[in-house]
Amino acid sequence: MPLNWKTGGLLLGLVFFLAVWLVKPIGVSTQFVILDGILWDAVNPELVTQTADGYTSTNDYLAKSGGKYAKSVADPLNYSFVFVLAMALGGLVSARLRGGIARADRSVHALWRANFGDSPVKRYAAAFLGGFIVLYGARLAGGCTSGHMMSGMMQTALSGYIFAAGAFVAAIPVSLLLFKKEA
Amino acid sequence: MTTILLAIVIGAAFGAVLDRIGASNPAYIGKMLNLTNLNLAKAILLAIGTGSVLMFGGQAAGLVDVGHMSVKAAYAGVFLGGLLLGAGWALAGYCPGTGVVAAASGRIDALFFIAGGLLGAAAYMVTYPAWKASGLLDSIAGGKVTLGAVPGAEYEGLTALPGDLLGIFLGLCFIALAFALPERLVPQKAAAQPAA
Fold this sequence. Notes:
The complex is a heterodimer. By secondary structure, chain A is mostly helical. Chain A is 72% helix and 4% strand. Chain A has nine helices and two strands. In chain A, strands 1-2 form a two-stranded antiparallel sheet. The radius of gyration of chain A is 19 Å and the shape is globular. The mean pLDDT of chain A is 96. Chain B has helices at 2-21, 26-33, 39-60, 76-92, 96-104, 108-134, 163-180, and strands at residues 145-149, 156-162. Chain B has a two-stranded parallel sheet. Chains A and B meet through helix 1, helix 2, helix 3, helix 4 and helix 5 of A and helix 1, helix 2, helix 3, helix 4 and helix 5 of B.
């Protein structure tokens, strides 16, 4: 059972506040680009190169804004990348401490089973396709649920409100259409 | 070194809290988005409100440095990208952060989500020039703006309202909305009837 929403919401708000107080607002989706860059650069070392005053890339996206993404690819031991690795660690420890995820839910969650049956292949295909659309959209928008919706709206950023409107305008109808049966 | 240590501490806390509130459970996300269990939405609204009140209250009290704010630009692609992310979020039950946490907590479908995500991000990296040329990434309404100008911050205000007071006010609105939102919005279906 998840935490009561009042406790959970307060704790989550505290984490977002601590981040902006001590360092900077939380964001995640950029790090998918950084990991792609690291993998791509391992195959093709020409991708990211050092310049007189920083880094640049043969890929326009990594080279934009003075090569800040190119720099992160060249030096992944930076705040934002380590932050996402630490999130995984926090999630792992937290899940272990509460007894882990039920075996049946690890590949196909209950709501999916109630609507689409228990074929893992179907579920994996949907998760893969969903992941593709989510990250393509997040990069087009310049942020995701963490960076735009939570951090953005918390700072009263106009972009955060525009993003949240788009996300829910699509997410709610799609979900109503997909998940008609309750678990 | 200090920043790396902070990344580990705050990142781990964020991952643990996402796990505990059910945000990395795709069934719980599905129940939020099909409006049958809004407890997670209430937690998110409360979190945004709490963060906002603490941040702007802290700024007013001189405890929080406005220089730590980081506001993203507004452009048409933000809405378009939001639509895409929303559709994928509903289908997969994961967003980028919760997908990472879910995979680490032992969910196998989340590994497929991350693989798809890496491919999607790579697809954006190679198609970026076309988006750039389309003009959909050009700033609208002043680009990097907050709803009101925050004293001392580098961002313009969309309105002439004082940004710090507006931030505290909107934070309180988010908290009120968290309490006002019902636990479900679509009515409970009656028990299934056998086919006639």
